[in-house]
Specification:
Number of helices of chain B: 11
CATH topology of chain B: MetI-like fold
Structural class of chain A: alpha+beta
Number of strands of chain B: 0
Helix content of chain B: over 70%
Strand content of chain B: under 5%
Radius of gyration of chain B: 20 Å
Order of helices and strands of chain A: EEEHEEEEHHHEHEHEEHHEEEEEEEEHEE
Number of helices of chain A: 9
Strand content of chain A: 35-45%
Largest sheet of chain A: 6 strands, mixed
Helix content of chain A: 10-25%
Oligomer: heterodimer
Number of strands of chain A: 21
CATH class of the largest domain in chain A: Alpha Beta
CATH superfamily of chain B: MetI-like
Order of helices and strands of chain B: HHHHHHHHHHH
Chain lengths: 365, 230
């Protein structure tokens, strides 16, 4: 067994209306999101990886350790996973503290230091000795995440952990999941049908439909691929990893460097060097052949057209590479078909992108 | 006085009933738990047939069950063969015989609540336990049993109370031997038969109070347990 820093799986198993038939290698680091419509088999993949469901044909290898192979199947309790279910599913007969420590290895118990660290990270300190029934939905889900972490997993599986929560609870819990992502070297497979959650936390994205994998790759690559469904979404956007190079305290504008360009983003004060995830909606990007300096638009940057796809008969989605040669990060622009033809745009046209708004998504590692 | 002599007889009957009911309940908890677990979790198609067999005593006239038991426990049945191991001729008309009969007769009253409780707990808590490295054995004792505790309580109380109240089966296989098979319910019948109305009143009234206490305390405890679960 050699550690190869990847998670490999292959499953063939019948679902209600079609067969799940997937095979994939994903990096054993960061957050890999499984995204697709409800019932496309995302949850079944997690159940197969964890051993809760035994696919008739299946293979799971996590960082060189075989969990399932032909004629070999390790039961769930022998797999080093953490599993966060859609509903927190806390044990109602145990206190929060006992829930948290239920999965600890009795031969090497969680140290006080490690316990305090995660309790702190998830903000659980206030209700350790309470019963889980007195907690709010968001608090329960945080306890469930903590409980999964204390079982010392090699891989954390999260099955739509936010979908059972209302909007305030989602917004309450999202920062905790982000902190987890930043503070722990633990690969996470995150199932969701909410693209917003994914834009927040995913590093790597797997698109699924009807039991099959449609595409997989780094988040921004999948978002900006004009042949994949995400780019055609009404609110399609691309996530960019930026680091702060300058902050103008007088106007409250932060200047971020992304691959191939600098972007100005209104923001409260941030330290130089901080990494943040930025998000650019396709509908906020317009194109101009000239460098219009007299404009209220903060970001006017040279780009090069590297792809195009008709979204509908009157609208096109343009893939832009940042920089005059287009060799930087990719963003999308949503323009009318008429503009495309009037400006006689084509692949390899160098021009300027006016970005009306860039939003800050979150801290980056 | 006569009351003095009688009350001794009554005490023996009460003691016998309690001993029988306690032993029956204990044996049933041991037998019913794996059975209820299997019924709640197995996907075997014929499990409902097994459930039906266990539940037969619910509808069968106790005398019919008693009749078959009498044959089974008698000198020519398996019970008789078992009894010959320690030199007895039959298991009928003995305390062990009563115990076997009570276990069979009260079985559905214990199995059913425990099965329902296991089913109400569902798969999810056990799956969660498995994802937290708990072996099936540990998950059973630390998750399934505590969560199903109201069902165990109901089963134990129903099994106990039902054994105290059984009459037909006892009459068929136990007869009326003081100190051995003359349990409370038989004693009441005996006193009525022999026109000792005062004693019969005392015993019958005591049984009513006992039954009320059992049911009432069960309801209170169940309510509290359920509140603790939610």
């Amino acid at each position: 067994m050699t550690k190869d820093n990847k998670i490999e799986f292959l499953f063939k198993t019948p679902l209600d209306h079609f067969d799940l038939d997937v095979a994939l290698d994903i990096p054993a680091r960061g957050v890999t999101a499984l995204f697709g419509p409800s019932g496309c088999g995302k949850t079944t993949i997690l159940r197969c990886i964890s051993g809760l469901h035994q696919a008739p044909i299946g293979r799971v290898v996590v960082d060189g350790e075989i969990w399932q192979a032909e004629g070999y199947f390790r039961p769930t309790h022998t797999r080093a996973i953490g599993y966060v279910f859609q509903e927190a599913s806390l044990f109602p007969h145990l206190s929060v503290r006992k829930n948290l420590l239920y999965g600890q290895d009795s031969r090497s118990p969680v140290s006080t230091q490690a316990f305090d660290h995660i309790v702190d990270l998830l903000g659980l300190g206030r209700f350790l000795d309470r019963s889980p029934r007195n907690l709010s939905g968001g608090e329960r889900q945080r306890v469930a995440i903590g409980r999964a972490l204390f079982s010392s997993p090699k891989l954390l599986l999260m099955d739509e952990p936010l979908s059972a929560l209302d909007k305030p609870a989602k917004e309450e819990i999202m920062p905790f999941i982000e902190r987890l992502h930043e503070n722990l070297q633990l690969p996470i497979i995150y199932v969701s049908h909410d693209i917003n959650e994914i834009e927040h936390i995913a590093d790597y994205l797997v698109l699924m439909n009807e039991g099959k994998i449609v595409a997989s790759g780094a988040l921004a690559n999948i978002q900006s691929d004009p042949n994949l469904p995400l780019a055609a979404y009404h609110d399609s956007a691309v996530s960019l990893e930026g680091s702060l190079v300058d902050y103008d305290a007088h106007f409250g504008i932060a200047k971020f460097e992304v691959h191939g360009a600098f972007l100005n983003v209104p923001s409260s004060a941030i330290e130089i060097g901080v990494k943040r995830r930025l998000k650019v909606y396709a509908s906020n990007v317009s194109l101009s052949l000239e460098n219009i300096k007299s404009s209220t638009i903060e970001n006017l940057i040279p780009v090069c057209i590297i792809g195009m796809k008709e979204t509908n008969p009157f609208q096109v989605t343009v893939v832009l590479g940042l920089g005059r040669q287009g060799d930087g990060a990719h963003i999308l622009a949503r323009i009318t078909r008429r503009s495309w033809e009037t400006l006689s745009l084509s692949i390899n046209t160098s021009l300027y992108a006016q970005i009306k708004a860039v939003s800050l998504v979150r801290n980056q590692r | 006085m006569m009351i003095q002599g009688l009350s001794n007889d009554i005490l023996t009957s009460i003691f016998l009933s309690m001993a029988l009911a306690s032993a029956t309940t204990l044996i049933l908890l041991v037998l019913a738990t794996p059975l209820a677990w299997w019924l709640a979790h197995s996907r075997a198609r014929w499990k409902e047939a097994i459930a039906a067999v266990i539940s037969i005593p619910l509808v069968l006239p106790p005398t019919v069950l008693g009749f078959y038991l009498l044959i089974a426990l008698g000198p020519n049945g398996p019970g008789g063969m078992l009894a010959s191991l320690w030199g007895a001729r039959t298991l009928a008309f003995s305390f062990p015989g009563l115990l076997i009969g009570s276990v069979l007769y009260s079985m559905p009253f214990v199995v059913q609540p425990i099965r329902n409780a296991f089913e109400a707990v569902g798969e999810r808590p056990l799956e969660v336990a498995a994802t937290l490295r708990a072996s099936p054995w540990r998950a059973f004792w630390t998750v399934a049993v505590p969560l199903a505790s109201p069902g165990f309580l109901t089963g134990a109380i129903l099994g106990f109370a039902h054994t105290v109240g059984e009459f037909g089966v006892v009459l068929m296989i136990g007869g009326n031997i003081p100190g051995q098979t003359k349990v409370l319910s038989i004693a009441v019948f005996d006193y009525v038969e022999t026109s000792q109305w005062g004693t019969a009143h005392l015993l019958a009234g005591g049984m009513v109070v006992f039954s009320f206490c059992v049911i009432f305390s069960m309801m209170l405890i169940e309510k509290r347990l359920r509140q603790a679960r939610l």
